[in-house]
Amino acid sequence: MIHCTLLSPAIDVSYIVSEPLIDQTLTDLPICVTPAGKGLNVASVVRELGEDVTLHAIIPEIDLLRYTRFLEEKEIRHKILPVPGSVRVNTTVLNVATSAVTHLNSAGAAVSVRFQDEFIEKIHQCCNTGSYWCFSGSIPEGFDNDVYGRMIKTCNDAGAHTLLDSRGAPLRLGLRMRPEMVKPNHAELEQIFDESILGVHHIALKAKRLIDMGISNAFISLGGDGMIAIQNNDCLLCVPPSVTIVDTVGCGDALVAGIIVARKREFSFHETCRMAVACGVSKALHRGPGIVFRDEVWQLMEDVNITAV
Ligand SMILES: Nc1ncnc2c1ncn2[C@@H]1O[C@H](COP(=O)(O)OP(=O)(O)OP(=O)(O)O)[C@@H](O)[C@H]1O
Ligand SMILES: [Mg+2]
Questions:
Q1: Predicted pLDDT at 233
Q2: What is the pTM (predicted TM-score) of this model?
Q3: Ligand 1 atom 16 nearest Cα
Q4: S-S: 173 plus which of 3, 146, 198, 266, CB 3.0-4.6 Å?
Q5: 48, 46, 55, 45: which is closest to 9 by C-alpha?
């Protein structure tokens, strides 16, 4: 079974307007409201790729119904720890006349640290040998920066497979517990080493450092440039086909889903990379996070160019 975690859920609200927003009230706008969060994006793509998935989530009580309905529609199993407070709201306003996009992201409510311990205990109860665990996204205010590290240790001790995709201190502290896989983007790789990293060979060198730290696989995603991935002595540059991009938010989450599904299906390292990059590209072709199409992924896999670095 594949498991995803969602510690910092959000609601995405998007508006489409056709005039500038200066000193005016616009009414009767079409609105799209969807539950969001990186762990949820990963779980949605895993499901689309045809695998069973369980989402372990911390959700404010007041937003529970919206999340559970959404998860049921997507056939994502869920284990939810309800907490007080309300969810953060990310609002996007797209002006179709100018193509300007404005993002208004609210702060998330703090969550008491006692829920962190309860959540880790629930994971301890569920993780068994051979299961796959994906830890993605930021953490709520009030939680310790080593929360992912503690969850990774719990899963590693149980003989489960672990993947970490976060940023800043939770990423750095999580790495100390040696997840089996890590998926930083370029900026996150620079945060890990606290230095600027330029060019394919420099990126590959730093990815190798992650392997030396005891992490078995490092997947460094590079947006439109694809990915550099390393496992043992195999270091691959994976370049996506050139396509017309619609929306790149959540491409990394789709790539993570591709990695975890390929690993569960025991694909070779090459094929895992191919599938991961194809999932990222499929996401970039559609509006909305967590949206890929499985037939498109199979087709795009053929067009990913892989070379040894
Ligand atoms: N402009 C693009 N053209 C083609 N493929 C893209 C593009 N942007 C992203 N991708 C695909 O998605 C993958 C992941 O993208 P990226 O490195 O931007 O992830 P990320 O920064 O972690 O994104 P997020 O955190 O928003 O999910 C890339 O490796 C690539 O396969
Ligand atoms: Mg990312």
A1: 87
A2: 0.95
A3: 223
A4: 146
A5: 55
